[in-house]
Amino acid sequence: MTDRDPRDPHSLMVHAGAGRDPDRPLSVPIVQASTFALPSTARGAALSTANAPTRLYTRWGNPTTRALEDALAELEGGEAAIAFASGMAAMSTAVIASVAAGDHVLCSRHIYGGVIQLVRDLLPRFGVASDVVDVRDPKALAPHIRSNTRLLLIESPANPTVDVVDIEALAATARAHGVRTLVDNTWATPWNQRPLDSGADGVVHSATKALGGHSDVIAGAVIGARGWIEDVWRAHKVLGGCISPHDAWLVMRGIKTLGVRQARACNTALELARWLETHPAVKRVHYPGLSGHRGHAVAARQMRTFGSMLAFEVASRAAAAAVAEGVGLITHAVSLGGVESLICHPASTTHAPLDPAELAAAGIAPGLLRMSVGLEGIDDLVDDLDRALAAG
Fold first, then answer.
1. Domain of 264: which CATH number?
2. Are 99 and 164 contained in the same domain?
3. Which among 256, 280, 309 is the end of a domain?
4. 8 A C-beta contact, residue 342 and residue 349
5. In the annotation, is 112 catalytic?
6. Is residue 275 in some structural domain?
7. 59 is an active site residue
8. Where a domain ends, among 237, 256, 275?
9. Helix-strand-coil percent breakdown of the chain, rounded to 5?
10. Which of 109, 180, 194, 209 is catalytic?
């Protein structure tokens, strides 16, 4: 970092990870290699005992991947980052690197369903206990912390209910008890919030989403303090969820336009949420930009804007299916954060593995629809939803 480093987020996103070489290529080269020539056995020994070398074997590291990792660390204000082949590879590896048999993990009830499956179904097989709890009220966290609790997993805004939690308050409580806080920042993106600035210890991304931004790559990342990231890298080296150099390049390309894409999509999402509130077929709208949202005040303090994700409820599961299947301009699909607007029914897709009681506890109503707002015009989105809602 130098005195010439940008302060405006738009500038940072354009130049993050580019380095300072005066004759550098403006597009980071794709080093499409699985292995690298070694000039000597001594060099091989040095690289084989180093942390995340970039010129030994691409599962361990790669120059293109490192450029992405440097960019992500800059965006999130962390010391270092590791890129992964998917968001769940990132989350799983970060969790595994942070706990051992006999430990306990706390996970927010309002979080991506895959994370709940990780802590509920997989960790206990390796002697790690877990509890899935509601932490929307920060005061509710402390009673769940045990002497062996090592990790708190939260997401804000949360998938799929768009609930907001107070990252600063939760991280402070966790830290006071010696618990590491890991935040899934996929929905907000670094454009809207930087959890490390609020006291979190680590950040996870599904870079598949807004960071990549074009629905053409699967990727993930973990960002945090250098020492902890080295622990994550050692687990990553063994588990093998490495990102390909070409996919790393695609995410780098996406990051350059993240600010302008988010600025437009977030503004459109707010307009769309206000319109949905007035629609007679809509029972409830979940969007933190609305003054009636329970997390509105926290989001206004914690985020730059209120995000590009929203959810709304219609009368029934059948009505939700009719809306999801009735849109034309909007695409009925899972995932989020791309240039095109997407809609899905979480109870039958992203959170389908949860049983009815778990869905209800997470606030996922049978008629809940999740929407990722893209770059289309607001009038076109309104017309499309209006026709689908009428049909439902």
1. 3.90.1150.10
2. yes
3. 256
4. no
5. yes
6. yes
7. yes
8. 256
9. 40, 15, 45
10. 209
Question: Do 241 and 296 share a structural domain?
Answer: no
Residue 3 in any domain: the answer is no
Q: Is residue 1 part of a domain?
A: no
Instruction: Say if residue 267 is in the same domain as residue 249.
Output: no
CB neighbours of residue 176 within 10 Å: 10
Is 280 found in the same domain as 215? no
Catalytic residue, candidates 184, 201, 247, 384: 184
CA-wise closest residue to 212 among 181, 244, 180, 182: 244
Which residues form the domain of 25?
9-256
Alpha carbon distance 82, 189 (integer Å) = 17
Same domain, 47 and 189: yes
Q: Which residue among 112, 150, 194, 384 is the active-site one?
A: 112
The dihedral of CA 94, 258, 70, 26: what is its sign? positive
Tell the residue number behind the tokens 């804007």, with chain if given: 305
Could you tell me what percent of the chain has a pLDDT over 70?
Answer: 98
For residue 4, being part of any structural domain is answered with no
Set 59, 175, 253, 304: catalytic member: 59
What is the tally of structural domains in the chain? 2
Q: CA-CA distance, 94 to 151, in Å (whole number)?
A: 10
Same domain, yes or no: 36 and 105: yes
Per-residue pLDDT of the chain (392 residues; tens, 9 = 90+): 444 566 787 788 888 877 767 778 888 999 999 999 999 999 999 999 999 999 999 999 999 999 999 999 999 999 999 999 999 999 999 999 999 999 999 999 999 989 999 999 999 999 999 999 999 999 999 999 999 999 999 999 999 999 999 999 999 999 999 999 999 999 999 999 999 999 999 999 999 999 999 999 999 999 999 999 999 999 999 999 999 999 999 999 999 999 999 999 999 999 999 999 999 999 999 999 999 999 999 999 999 999 999 999 999 999 999 999 999 999 999 999 999 999 999 999 888 888 898 888 888 999 999 999 999 999 999 999 999 999 86
